[in-house]
Amino acid sequence: MDLGSNTLRLLVAEVDASGWRAVQRAMATPRLGLGLRPGAALDPAAKQAAATAAAAFARQARAAGAQAIALAATQACRVASDGAAFVGHLARELALDQAAVIDGRQEARLSRLGVRSRLDGPAQGLLLADVGGASTEIIDLADEADLGQSLALGAVSLTEACLRSDPPSAAQLADLAHLAREGLAPLAGRRARGLVASAGTAATIAAMAQGHTAYLPEEINNAVVTRAELARHFARLAIMPLAQRRAVLGLEPKRADIILAGMAIFAALMDILKLDRMITMDAGLLEGILLDFAAIQSLEKPSHEA
């Protein structure tokens, strides 16, 4: 399970020496990072929603035959005063085999692991961007020594900072673009052969571009979205009221209110890196958590079970 600032995602999979195969997937949107400020406590209603969803996912995983369950929590639990305690509570209540709040560098490493498990072609020269609810992780996809950058810029936090009307005003959209560029300022001067975009916002952008009516992760993996396509979809969505946005093909209704901010981050990323396209990946952090945990489980098995 991947517990982020916006979503909680579940992947039940079979893992062996040749790779992994998904058995079941599920996602909930507890919005754990709702209104969160560094050092403050998590929103009680969001905590309850996350706990309820995690309990349901643990039951679902075990019913599907899962032999062990791991949970990794990211930015919301990193910055909240009670984040670590909440994850510890989930571990005890749900009898999880592993549960931890991971730091930005761990998140980057696991995202690289997950993306490379499904990436077509060489990783050399590619930068990975994982845009979450409250943070964006940037990492060299080929360089194992690169510990990555964790930027305090995410789709939920940027939405809360900028978008107050429905639909947003021109001034609010200008603020959105400005804050996205400002948040990515640490990347100034960085260059890459290409940009790989992972996590929910990236997958949603690809799904909209392809007109998906169902969740098709393998269609999203390695799809290409151009800067022009991104700009066209952004302009279309920006003038829609939220209720209309929720009906757009490929756009998950619960992500409709934060999609503009996520798209603004990717647009700013392509601008700052001087790229005209990005490769989208559904695989990322969740799959990295799976593979890392499976490797640990394999090492811990007695030799006669290996």
Automatic annotation (TrEMBL):
Q: Which Gene3D superfamilies match?
A: 3.30.420.40, Exopolyphosphatase. Domain 2
Database matches in InterPro entries: ATPase_NBD, GppA/Ppx_hydrolase, Ppx_GppA_N
> A Pfam family for this UniProt protein?
Ppx-GppA
- Taxonomically, which superkingdom? Bacteria
Q: Name one GO molecular function term.
A: pyrophosphatase activity
**Ppx/GppA phosphatase N-terminal domain: which residues?**
12-292
What is the native source organism of this protein? Desulfarculus baarsii (strain ATCC 33931 / DSM 2075 / LMG 7858 / VKM B-1802 / 2st14)
The protein depicted here goes by the name Ppx/GppA phosphatase
Q: Where do the coiled-coil regions begin and end?
A: none
